[in-house]
Amino acid sequence: MNVLDRAIAWVAPTAALKRARARAALGLVRGYEGAKTGRRTAGWTSGTSSANAEIGPAASRLRQRCRDLFRNNPLAASILRVMVSNLVGTGIVVKVSDPALQAKWEQFVLQCDADGVSDLYGLTALVAQSWKESGEVLVRLRPRTAADGLAVPLQLQVLEIDHLDTSKEEDLGGGRHILQGIQFDALGRREGYWLFPQHPGEAGPIRAALVSRFVPADQVLHIFSRTRPGQIRGVPALAPVMLKLRDLDDYQEAELLRKGIESCFAAFVTNPNGTQGSMLGADASQTDAKGTRDETIAAGMVKYLGPGESVEFGTPSSVSGFNEFITNYKREITSGAGVPHELATGNLTDVNYTSHRAGLVEYRRQVEQEQWLVLIHQFLRPVVAAFQRYAAISGVRNALAATAEYTPPKFDWVDPVKDATGELIEVAAGLKPWQEAVRRRGFDPERVVEQIKEDQARFEAAGVKVQIGDLLLGAVATAINQGSRE
Asked: Where are the alpha helices (DSSP H) in 154-308?
């Protein structure tokens, strides 16, 4: 109680009591239960370090363990496949506004891989997989010469984040510094990366010395998800559920081993005379020098015990609720990884159209977010910008003035009839542009119009009186009527 409260209490005790009660109630309102100390939070320790201070020491081990899970854990491998297939599909299509530049771009799509293995769509899938698996991935822009015979003198090289020399940290003075292998200027902008010329874990007779070299930032793309301000590196997608995946593996293996051991003992046989009889279903010669019969365990084995004991057949025990526990545990894992349980496990038990669609809608919103904010913004847009610069150098006029459109892969509909009905109603009502509806299905609107014109010309040449526009209007009207009935 402060001086003022004591003074009020001396003059007006009732008013002082009301003030004390109000102050106590206000303290309860303002307090956060999660910040209080006590029995429930006695073992809850947390730090106040920055994102980089937390990620730096843990990144390498997280990356190694997530890679191991993706390679050896079936559920983790399925989660990765679902992530990549939904993010990239067969590729995010890019179309530039200038026809001459578009022709060059289509050639670049086929020639862009510095390793000569994939096209741009394959590289996009590789980038997405490495990003999810390792938490981050690097892409180097590799300038080429005219002698290489490329449409545009530029190629892309995808590098695992292991190439980054994270031990490189230095104060360069004047506000410039190197943090975890990334060099920044005085304003915090990236100047470049310190990269190893070869993967530090590469095996083979010829290995380059592990001495990192500085590569300017305009030649490197760093793709990762940023979840905290000031964060300069990423973490693997399975980081929140890594231990749960490992525990699930251990639990299932222990249960399988227990069942296997129990199934090995079919019956326990005794001899009233105190001597060993022949092993049931086995050759009597299956003994060692000491006459011991059961040196090994095999399915259906009969175990001989001492004299005077009765025969007892083995009955393997059952674990109550095993399937329910495994299913719920997998749901928790897939939820933490951000993937619907049904997609990751293929388990559609107790799933109807409404619940499945509701889950897919939310997941697709998450996928679209990552497509546009990470894959397109951090990878494809810088690639297109670099392509335009090198196209201008190679003589393509107005290359720098061209714009680009990005079309992610379409999402397949759960119920094509119902979903198409809703799509047609939105287009007919003017709530959605026709071009947007076409792009969301993974097609180029201009190419679709050209194909419709070609089909119409074929019908007319064959003497078939079919107006495709009338068919489309009829489909819209049918969809509207169907929607109104439902």
From this structure: 242-264
